Amino acid sequence: MSKVEEEVHDIDKRLVKIEAILDRLENNHLAHVEADMAEMKVSMKDISSMVFKGIIAFFLQLAVVLMGVIAFLASLVWG
After folding, report:
1. pLDDT per position as a tens digit, 7-39
2. CA distances (Å), origin 3, targets 16, 33, 64
3. CB–CB of 1/9 below 8 Å?
4. What distances in angstroms separate CA 10 from CA 2, 15, 19, one per listed residue?
5. pLDDT value at residue 26
6. Residue 63 pLDDT
7. What pLDDT, on the 0 to 100 scale, is given for residue 35?
8. Three-state SS for 79?
9. Position 66 confidence tier, pLDDT thresholds 50, 70, 90
10. Alpha-carbon span 46 to 37, nearest angstrom
């Protein structure tokens, strides 16, 4: 084998190793990332739901307090 052929053979071996590493990354790591993203999506929906419920509860409580203040002021005026 000539020197160039040996270098080409060496490069081929390195490419095979790189392809194996890339395949492993695609199949293992990306699967874990996709699973984590799916879990995050579910938890974000839960958080959004909780925030929305909290906002509704805040405005309902505000309405109750305002009605109480209005009733109190009305009782002072019309006694």
Report:
1. 888 899 999 999 998 888 878 777 788 888 888
2. 20, 43, 88
3. yes
4. 12, 9, 14
5. 79
6. 97
7. 83
8. coil
9. very high
10. 14
pLDDT > 70 in the chain, percent: 100
Q: Which amino acid is at 23?
A: D
Alpha helices in 1-79 (DSSP H): 3-24, 30-78
Residue 18: name the closest of 10, 2, 33 by CA: 10
By the 8 A CB rule, do 79 and 72 touch? Answer: no
Pull the structure tokens for residue 14. 């390195």
Please give the single-letter amino acid code of residue 79. Answer: G
> What is the rounded end-to-end Cα distance, in angstroms, of the chain?
111
Residues 6+ apart with CB under 8 A from 1: 9
Structure tokens at 61: 């409580």
